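Hello again, I could really use a second opinion on something today. I've been staring at a protein lately and its backbone has me curious. Can you walk me through what the C-alpha cells say about the fold? Take your time with it, there's no hurry, and the full record follows here:
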Amino acid sequence: MFENIATIYLKEFRQLKRDKLSLSAIILVPTLMLLLYGYALNFDVKHVRLGVLDESMTKESRQLQQKFFSTEYFDFAGVVPGETAIDKFIQDDRSKAVLVIPRDYAKQLLLGKRVDVQVILDGANSNTATIIMGYVDGVLQNYSANLTASYMNRKGFRMAPAGIDYRPRVYYNPELKSAKFLIPGLIGFILMILSIVTPAISVVREKERGTLEHISMAPTTSLEIILGKTTLYFVLSLVASVLVIGASFLLFDVTIRGSLLLLAVTIVIFLIGTLSIGVLISTFTSSQQMAFLVASLLSILPTFILSGFVFPINSMALPLQLVTYLLPGRYFLSALRAIMLKGSGFADIYNQIYPLIIFAIAVPAFASIRLSRKGF
C-alpha cells in the first residue's frame, strides 16, 4: 500500500516540479492573498471627514469642534456655508457627516439650558454610519458630562459621587483592531481555496491529458490513489500555512496565544477533508474550467459568506444558519480564532474539532467509494 502511495506521490512531485509556474503560485499566492485581504478588509473606521456648520461662531462652539478633531476618528472636511449646502456637501462625498451648531449655542450653555446639536450622517453605507454614530455619541456624552460638571461648580453645587463608574476592559484584542479578528479567518479562507481548487484542477488536467488512465489500470485501490494524489498538496498546504501565519505575525502582529500543537492538529484535520473534496470534485468534472468553477463555488463563496469569516452567523436568516452547520469552514474558523486569539485549549474547542474529524473521515470515504464505482 505505502509503495503504491509513494509511487503516485513521486509522480505528482515530478510533474509539479516541472510546472514551476503552478508551484510558485501554490507557495506565493496564499501570502499575496493575505497581504491583499489583510490590508483591504478593515472594519476600523477612522479619519471620518466631518464638515462643520457653526452658526454660533463663539469660543464655546470652537471648543466643541476641538473635541471631535482632537481624536484620530474625525478629520476636518471644511466649513459648510449654510443649511442649504449640507445636502450638496454630503452628496459630493466631501464629508461623511456634518456637525450643525445652532446660533444660540453659547448663550444656552451659559444659562445652563439644554442645547440641541445636530449631526447629519451619510447613511449610504449603514455599517459605517452606525460606527460613526457611536463615535459621535461617545464624544458628545463625554463633553456633555464635562459641561454639566463645570456648570454645577460655577453655581457652587457639589457633584454627588453616586452613579455608575463605567470602566470597560477588553480581553484578547484590547486595541479593537479588526485585523486581529480577520487574519485567522483569512488563514482558513486561503487554505480552503488552496486545498480544494488545486487538487481538483490537477487531477482533471491529468484526465484531459490521458495520463490518469495509466494510474487507474495499475494494481492500486481507490484510497491509495486519493492518498497519493493529495499527499503532495497536503505538504504544500502545510508550507503555505506556515508562510501565512508567519506573515500575519510579522505584518499584522497576530500572535498565537494557544498551543502550536493544537493549532497544527486542527489544520491537519481540516486539510484532510478539504483535499478530499478536491479529489471528489474531479470525479464529477471532465474539464479544468468546470473543475475550477465547481471548486470555487464550493470553497470561495461559502467560506467568505457563510462561515462567519466576515458576517456574523447569528445575524443571518435561520435557513442560512442551518446551512452553515454543513460547512467545515464554520468550525475551522471558530477553532482558529479561539486558539490564536484566546489561547483556548482542546477542552474549550472540542465541539469545533469533532465535526472536523467527522468531516475528515466521511469525505475521503465517499470520494473512495465514488472513485471505485465510477472512476475519475
